[in-house]
Amino acid sequence: MSTAILSLHNIGKIFETEELETHALKSINLIINKGDYVSISGPSGCGKSTLLSIMGLLDVSSSGEYFIEGVNVTDLSLDDAAEVRNAKIGFIFQSFNLIDELSVFDNVALPLRYHADKPNNATIKKRVTECLEKVALSHRISHKPNQLSGGQQQRVAIARALVANPAVLLVDEPTGNLDSKSGDQVMDVLDQLNKAGTTICMVTHDPRYADMARTKVQLLDGTILQSPAIKIAS
Amino acid sequence: MNLFIYQLKQAYLSLKQKPIFVLSVVSTMGITLGALLCVLTLAYVMLIKPLPYPDQERLYNVEHQLISNENAIDGRAFTYPNLMHLYNKQSLFEQSVLMYVDGDVITSLPSEPMVALSFVSPQWFSLFSAKMALGRGFEASEKVNSYNPVAVLSYETWQNKFDGTANVLEQNLTLGGNSYRIIGVLAASNIEAPLAGAGFKTELYLPWDYNSVSERERKRWGNDDGGLIFVGKLDKKYSGYSKQKIDQILTRLVSDNWQSEVAGHAFFKDWSIALQTKTLKSFIVSDGERSVYLLLIGALGLLLIACANIANLFVSRTVERQQQLAISAAVGASKTQIFHNILAETGLLMFVAIVLAQFIIFIGFSALQYYLGDFLPRIDELELNSFSFSISTLLLVLLTVVFSLLCRKMINYHALNTTLQSSGKGSGIQVSKRVRNILISSQIAIATTLVFINVVLYKDASELVNQPLGYQTENITSVVLALPSVEKGLQVQKINELKSELLAHPKVKNVSQAMRPTGFGTLALTASITEQRYTVLGKDVDEQYFNMLEQEIIAGENFSAADIKDDSSVMIVNDVFAKKLAPNGSAIGFKFKNGVEIIGVVNSINVPGRQRIESRFYYPASLARNMLLIEQHQGQVFSRDEMITALKKVDRKLSLFSFTSLNEYKNQRLFSSQTTAVTTLVLAILTLFLSGLGLYGILNYSSQMRRSEIGTRMAIGAKGKDIVGLVIKDNAGALVIGLAVSFVVLLVLYLSFSDSLSAYINLELLPLFMLTMGAIALLSSLACYIPLRQFIKKPVIHSLKGSE
Known about the structure:
The structure holds two protein chains of two kinds. Helices cover 32% and strands 26% of the residues of chain A. By secondary structure, chain A is an alpha/beta fold. Chain A has a single domain (36-59, 78-225), classed as P-loop containing nucleotide triphosphate hydrolases (Rossmann fold), CATH 3.40.50. In chain A, a hairpin with a 4-residue loop joins strand 1 and strand 2. The mean pLDDT of chain A is 89. Chain B is built from 24 helices and 21 strands. In chain B, a hairpin with a 2-residue loop joins strand 7 and strand 8 (178-186). The chains are: A alpha/beta, B alpha+beta.
């Protein structure tokens, strides 16, 4: 029996200004199980990134309920949300979001520095080395991000996302800032990670990469278009 | 023009969105510029503006110097005969004026008010172009030695003492037993030359002949008197003469005559006289010039700190406007147009600040006139004038250009053009980390140094204000009587009658025959056995004095009524003098050469506003003493009018010279310390406020630059406290450097000026310095925390989106 990692029930998101209400998401129901590889795609402004932000606890929903590994995380405080993000979620951003002043090692180690278990330096070193080996960048451990290519930077970001053993990787347009060759390399890494058991949820508008996922979710105007492959939360 | 108005409108709309920024800039610059403009106008009035008298550049004051046989200046005041000789014999001045200032009671008025008097020769009125509201000034009929008993009132005296009555010229007034006919009233617009000091305002003008210098003193060639003043208008035909030549001519005129007059006095052998002229303007400004320069330095220092802090806010603001400026650049705004955009916003802010400054100037002028009117001359002439308007305009333009150029310098126009395409990578607006750290360190160093100096001065002043005086001031009034010249026995009888009258009054609890507790004279005493000489402060008191003032007698006994009556050869000393006389034993029984014996020791009192306690002694007061202390029952107020009624009941010739409560004396003496305490406290708070603003500006900018990093860290699990800790840790180095620099600056200051500063700075102040550093560190932490609130108090997506 599959285990639900992420479970969204009737999630809605409204952006309000003084004069206007925009319904970015409307009654989103979605379950992502352990080991899934889900792609979310759709036209610009359909709510892909908003949905990913809510799934990653970077933003809060306006309505509905959200569960991570069966725990209701809808109304967590900012600090509790940070703790859940650190322990359960690994992020990969379109623009890599590496910290320029830190070395590759320190960038990758960053989630462990904020981890509730406060791992010691030896543990951190071991985990960082393992993760960099997974993305074939252990030889660049002392470099600064600006000494790496775009593809290498994104692979460092993948290593950082993996280092705290998250339950799921949330990936936002991972190839958006890369050339096609580097993009392919990054997608290969993600594919291998999923095959090794890592749960991945990826936002992309590139149909080629969306097809690499085993489950495809199409969003349009804040609503999931029905698809036989989608698991809808009941 | 249309574009200029459009840019101003845009600037207004943009600033409307940033009320805290606007408030910070406008309030800081408004207050600072207001203070600066106030002081600049004061400096203009005192140092540059011509005196409001005709031919003011030809007006001179003459100083009379008495030079001892050791070639030291023994006195800087005229002797009466020398002054008269100069007045009668000189020919350098086409007009000359004699003036003598004093105070007396107008006994012909029911309230018997004390008034400030100026005895002047007739040309005073024409020399200073005195404007009359009624009647005339003194003329030839009041020339020296004419003894014409007439009087001229100041406008305020007319209004306040004579109710502004139209028939005042038909009235007479009586002072010191003489009756004077009122012949004129000066106009309200008349500006009195402050010849007798800044605080002296003449209320009544009397002819020179009636000045209060006694007939005996008028003939003494060796006794100088600080109340004698000479002012002359240099004859046009001598205007080419150098000051040195004028001084030589005048000196020769007076000195030759003086030498022949004192030839028979051995004391004045090898003594000499020198006359020194000063332009009237520099004579009037005198020591005030130093005060004005000090105020100017203070105001410029404040402007410097304010500008440094506001510059930081502008840096931060420019970073915030990056997107707006980038869009302008993207749609074709040229570098110059972007600068004009910045110029419009900065100009608008500076304009509002200058408008606020005008209100501050208005308040500042009133405050200066109220608080410093007694210390600085010509302060009555302060007003918003063309000078203050011109300087305001100049500052408006200068500050607008400087702040706009600073913002423009930060902008890399090329990078700005590409900002919109680079997803936040790279910025068109940059200040390096090194510069940011230097700004933080310098800010902290300045703030710590200034706050510490102000806190030390505040501590010193507040200790003076709050120090226990060692005597009672509540419900006690000090009274000085103006007594007619009668023989001593009759005077004693009248005073005794007055004391009985006062003691019978239901509001009066006790009466002591003594001067106010802080009034002492200096006397020389010689010990009878050791022949050691002591110069000590002494005063005469009666047997009621110590009980009334609750000044404790700690050894021996008080004066008895018999001691006072018999004028016994006894004295009471304070504990400081007692310790000096008998360091290891009792001073009771100690005798002086004049036969006086110490019978008691009292606790020392603190003179309000002074730290040092000196040796003092008390001796029996004469029963004819014209000074009283009146203690009132709790909750009762014995008024001046009631005092006058009591006086008149005893004898209509008795009048009241002064009537002041001990609390009023105390407050007068503490005024300077209280002003220092308030000023330093306000400056310390202002410095903290300005530094807080400055640090906020830098750190807000720094936080904006790190927005992406902060968002990323929070996305991967950093909590709010982690981010705050990170930013504080990153800025700790700059903070420590700033604190260290301030410590070094204070140390250098102390080592360089240890003689002057040893009274203020010592090791005991180390905890205070630590406290100051703690306050600055707390302020810095707050300045770190506040800009981060926009990130850590909102969902992470706000930081991440902002960085994109």
